[in-house]
Amino acid sequence: MLLALFKLALRNVFRNRRRSGLTLASVIIGLAALFFIQSLIKSLQADMADRAIGVFNAHLQVQSKASEDPKVPEASFGNVALVEKILRDDPDVVAVSKRILVTGMVASPTNSMGVGVFSIDPQDETQLSSIASYVKDGHFIEGPRQVLLGKKIAKNLDVRVGEKVVLMAQNREGSFEGRSLRVAGIFETGSYTWDASMIYAYRADVGSLLAWNNEVNVIAIKLKDSTLLERVRSRIAAKIAGVDTSLKVLTWKEVSSEIIHIQGFQDAILFLILSVVFVIVALGILNTLLMSLFERIREFGLMMALGAKRRDVAVLLLTESVFLGGIGLFWGAAWGMAIITVFHFIGLPLPLGEALSYFLPFEKILYLRFAWKSHAVAVLSVIFVSCVAGIVPAIRVTRLRAAEALRHV
């Protein structure tokens, strides 16, 4: 009986090929487009997070609780060697880099300008961030008295690799100090803000300039697995609290909260798109089934006259609805995954690349990734919509009377 019902439902789906074809097309195109949009937005979000972690932030950062600005902490802290040992002994930590982030001024014989100073230990930093890969002229910092300039800074100062600049900053006594540094290299990330406002210097040089005496204001931490972010943060914070209660451990999400806000906005847009697509899908299936019901009232009356129960006829319509959704689901998901696979390998040129890279380095070509959780939500939504769309005609058919249905023309 059940097999006969399935065969009858499948035959009825393709009885009116044009109408069913249009409904299937709406499901297939809608789902494929949704897969693509989900992949595009999630790939953008992942790339933004990767760039933020790989260039400016890290998975985790140790800072002083006295600092209010997580991006450029104003307070320094000691116990650096002890905290660093705790971090390096953690099995989930792969790299640790001590940093001093301050604002200062860099000057050449022809010009001067305010900059953000990113002072580092080169060997540790190359294991944690990707800034060395952006060096276009010269080389990355290798030792003391060297500085790495953004391309636009070098142009504004009219300096080249091998020439000297003076870095000035205010120390803890409130007086301005300066250090003469030689330009080791010039980097170009493609980000206007980064190339025009950031320089990299040797940590010991900046530490002596500020009179911080082996203090830092950030210790950056890279993890083996980013999915363990909160678990590792809690464990490390507990260990550090046993040594120095004045310190806190922040995740990259807390340091770059603006990225999380952007992702939330994008997720809201994605939800709106998903809602619109599935309203269209539901209306398409509902329209097809209602038209089919109207055209087949006499047929349903005959079925009931021959002994079929109203419940059986209702189940038939629900089965047809599920068939429409299922066929559309299969081909829509197949086309969606095929499109994502193509752009995963060849990449998708982004007209928004210039805007996105204004604050952080961002590639002009985006290689799409599968967003399996989002795709699963889309698939379950199609199944749900297909079932719900069949309820209205199923309810209407249960109200038919066999005698009246047989007189329907």
Protein architecture, described:
- The structure is a single chain.
- The protein is of the alpha+beta class and 409 residues long.
- The protein is built from 16 helices and 12 strands.
- The strands form 2 sheets. Strands 2-3-8-5-7-6 form a 6-stranded mixed β-barrel, surrounded by 4 helices.
- A hairpin with a 5-residue loop joins strand 6 and strand 7.
- Helix 2 packs across helix 12, helix 10 runs parallel beside helix 14 and helix 12 runs antiparallel to helix 15.
- The radius of gyration is 31 Å and the shape is elongated.
- The protein starts with a helix and ends with a helix.
- The mean pLDDT is 83.
Query: What's the oligomerization state?
Result: single chain
Helix vs. strand class:
alpha+beta
Q: Give the SSE order as H and E letters.
A: HHEHEEHEEHEEHEHEHEHHHHEHEHHH
State mean pLDDT (0 to 100 scale): 83
Main sheet attributes: strand count, strand direction, barrel closure: 6 strands, mixed, barrel
Q: What helical percentage do the residues reach?
A: 55-70%
Q: Count of DSSP helices?
A: 16
**How many runs of DSSP E, i.e. beta strands?**
12
Can you list the strand order of the major beta sheet? 2-3-8-5-7-6
Radius of gyration: 31 Å
N→C terminal distance: 29 Å
The parts where pLDDT drops under 50 for at least 5 residues are: none
Strand content: 15-25%
Overall shape: it is elongated
Helix-strand layout with pairing:
Elements lengths: L1 H12 L3 H40 L3 E5 L15 H10 L3 E15 L4 E9 L1 H7 L6 E4 L7 E5 H7 L6 E7 L5 E12 L4 H6 E5 H8 L7 E6 L5 H13 L5 E5 H4 L1 H39 L1 H9 L4 H37 L1 E2 L3 H4 L8 E2 L5 H18 L1 H7 L4 H5 L3
Helix pairs in contact: 1-12, 2-10, 2-12, 2-14, 10-12, 10-14, 12-14, 12-15
